[in-house]
Amino acid sequence: METPGSQSSLHRANLERVLKAVRMAGSLTQAEIARSTGLSAATVSNIVRELSEAGTVVVTPTSSGGRRARSVSLSGDAGIVVGVDFGHTHLRVAVGNLAHRVLAEESEPIDTDASADEGFGRAETLVARLLEQTGFAPGKVIGVGLGVPGPIDVETGALGSTAILPGWTGIAPAHELSQRLGMPVRVDNDANLGALGELVWGAGRGLGDLAYIKVSSGVGAGLVINGQIYRGPGGTAGEIGHITLDESGPVCRCGNRGCLETFVGARHVLGLLQASHEPGLTIPKVVQLAQRGDLGCRRVIADAGRQIGTGVANLCNLLNPRRVILGGDLAEAGDLVLDPIRESVARYAIPSAARQLSVVPGTLGGRAEVLGALALVMSEMVD
Ligand SMILES: [Zn+2]
Questions:
Q1: If you measure from the C-alpha of residue 265 to the centroid of ligand 1, how many angstroms do you get, rounded to a whole number?
Q2: Residue with more model confidence, 342 or 227
Q3: Which residues form the HTH marR-type domain (predicted)?
């Protein structure tokens, strides 16, 4: 039996630290592994040799700062991970390996709010089809990351609010999908997965602290602190959409008044353009019109940006993140929405917190959540 602190348990712990660092980064040089794990160069070198001989990692020659180095990544057949992302209007599935390669990915339109049963059925079919495409047997799958557009109750695993996906009332999404696929499933909300996706694959690579803010029909934030998603004991950390901007403002779906979401959520933004623009507008269309110079669309996007910026300033004062990454449909407007956010941050945040902060668009677009679902498996389901 191993006792904590014994040589072999220490070795195992070091091995796991090295593996996790490589898994989350995709590939690292031995010097980078030493820096991010705090282990000595000699220990890292020994562990990498052991893992390489076992076929767990692949070592390839590379150069770092003009010097020869050895790049370490996980072997491509070390295991398969699956990501399933439910949006309000789409289902997206990706199959990848632990070396950060996406092997197959597909998205299809779906009315997620209508029926959970139909949604899970479609997900089951799509996962099976993509696995077949990659040629990997279901038994190779280490785990499935599942994204849903609403808060998850940590204790019951059910959706924390019945107002968001009425067709999903009483359903524990991870349990349901796990039953159908016969695979272990870990669930999280879309904003947390977007944050993980951008952290591992996108605009947040190499950072330990960031906030990902998703603005679409609702508004939510995923918070990464010291390289980990911060969820809070109830799983509701990051509900930035429900900070109060105006106590006597419009009533929000959460029951309060004047929440950030009531000023920047899709329904509100589209409502502002109802009298002046053609019917059938969507946020992507509004963004497109704004980029072509439509003044009304530019104005509502800028106003939304200023309001989001107030929320970001509060977040910045509380958590002092290095970077805020904007995702969701509105992020596609680029500087039309980002500049007003930056102006609000400059006005309302404490100068020392604001100085260190950069506000940038996500680089993954609509793929952030499904890639985050893959990263969720890599970070929390692999031993
Ligand atoms: Zn609210």
A1: 11
A2: 342
A3: 17-68
